[in-house]
Structure formats: structure tokens, C-alpha cells
Design a protein that fits this description.
about 240 residues, five-stranded mixed sheet, 5 strands, alpha+beta
Length: about 240
């Protein structure tokens, strides 16, 4: 049971409510900063781009290895063709069957080289495309890194400012609360916890500003006449009759 409460205590409790309302507003603002959402989106994009850059770099490496391998095979074939053609045209082979075999071998090697050359051209195109993609992704990643850094700085500044304001209001709240009766403060806290952060409200022109309910005129007169601690019949918040 709350002891008798005078008007100054109720007005002081209203001041406490103002501080609590402002602290709640600041906390909600801090948790819903547009910049924080933008930072989350930019960070997610940066993570995706980092992964894409790694994949693109691997594709460039794979294409480079394939190109090197094909060029190596072609060099080996070129050397074989050169040796076989030298034997073929040197006059050192007189046996018609052996000459025919050499000609067939040279023809086969040249066909093989032509196939490798076609494959090499395809791999070179793939490599050029992979390098172009990797460069574009790297540029986008660098740009996004800059965006993330800028947003982090902006969010940090905004949060620091909000936290500073919260600290100011918390200090004011503590000072106000220290001058309130303990039982009244306890009742206020219980109501505030179940009523969306509003534990006390003014009654103005017969309307509770906590739940915006118009009270009957007779009830308003009773509240004025009795004074002290009163509560709204509808929302059960503490009322301060204006």
C-alpha cells in the first residue's frame, strides 16, 4: 500500500516519467539507426564480394595453368615435328615404308597441335574474361570497403552522441528518483513495466493522457476532490489531475 502522496511528489514523478520516456526514445533510436541498417547491408555485400573475388582469382589461376599446360604440350609437339621433318627431308631415310610412317607421324602431330591451338584460344578467351571479372569485382570490393569504413565511422559517432544523451538523462533520472518515496517509486516501476513504459500520466480536460480515455465528469470531480494518489480506472496508470 502506497502512503499518502502530495502534489509535489506526483509532479516529481512526472519529471521522472519524462526522463524515462526520453531514455526509451533514445534507446529505440540507437537500435534503429538507418545508418546501422546501411552498414549491415554494406557489410553483407562486402562479405559476398570478398568471396566472389576469391573465386574469380581461382578461375584466373586455373585458366593460367591450363594455358601454360597447353603451351607446353604445343612446344613439345613443335620440337617433335621439327625433328621428324628434319629426318624426313634430310635424305637420311630412304626406305619408302619408313618415309610413309614419318609422313603419317608428322601429319598426326600437326593435327594434334591444331587441336591444342584451338583449345589454347578458348582458354585464353576464358582467362581474359576471368581477369576482367576479377578486376571489376576487386574494384567493387575496394569501393564497398570504403563505404563500410565511412558508415562505421558515422554509426560510431551517432551512437556515441546518443549514449552521451542517455547518460545525461540517466543522471537526471537518478537524482529525481532519489527524492521520491520508495513505495511510490516501486508502484510506478511496476505499472511502467506492463504499460509500455508509461507509469504515470496527466488527466487533462477529463482525458487520461496515458490511454486517451475520456473519464466521466463525475469521476473527474471525485479525483479532483480527493487529491493524492489516483489511478485511471481504464489503464490503471497513476494520474496527476490538472
Amino acid at each position: 500500500m502506497v502512503s499518502d502522496v502530495d502534489a509535489p511528489a506526483l509532479n516529481r514523478l512526472l519529471d521522472l516519467q519524462d526522463e524515462d520516456t526520453e531514455i526509451k526514445r533514445l534507446l529505440e533510436r540507437r537500435s534503429s539507426l538507418p545508418e546501422t541498417q546501411k552498414l549491415a547491408e554494406a557489410s553483407e555485400l562486402l562479405e559476398e564480394l570478398t568471396s566472389d573475388v576469391t573465386v574469380a582469382g581461382q578461375q584466373v589461376q586455373d585458366a593460367t595453368r591450363s594455358q601454360t599446360h597447353l603451351e607446353g604440350e604445343m612446344s613439345v609437339i613443335d620440337a617433335k615435328v621439327a625433328r621428324e621433318e628434319q629426318r624426313l627431308f634430310s635424305g637420311g631415310v630412304a626406305n619408302p615404308k619408313e618415309l610413309s610412317s614419318l609422313q603419317a607421324e608428322v601429319a598426326m602431330l600437326k593435327r594434334k597441335r591444331a587441336e591444342l591451338e584451338d583449345g589454347l584460344l578458348e582458354v585464353m578467351v576464358d582467362r581474359d574474361q576471368a581477369e576482367e571479372t576479377a578486376q571489376k569485382l576487386a574494384a567493387e570490393k575496394n569501393e564497398t570497403e570504403g563505404t563500410v569504413a565511412t558508415l562505421k565511422q558515422a554509426v560510431g559517432g551517432l551512437v556515441d552522441d546518443i549514449d552521451s544523451q542517455i547518460g545525461t538523462h540517466e543522471a537526471a533520472r537518478a537524482e529525481i528518483a532519489a527524492g521520491l518515496p520508495a513505495d511510490l517509486l516501486e508502484l510506478y516501476e511496476r505499472i511502467r513495466e506492463t504499460k509500455g513504459g508509461i507509469g504515470i500520466a496527466r488527466l487533462e480536460h477529463g482525458t487520461c493522457l496515458g490511454c486517451h480515455t475520456q473519464l466521466p465528469a463525475r469521476e473527474v470531480e471525485r479525483l479532483r476532490a480527493e487529491g493524492g494518489l489516483q489511478r485511471c480506472d481504464n489503464c490503471r496508470r497513476i494520474l496527476v489531475v490538472a
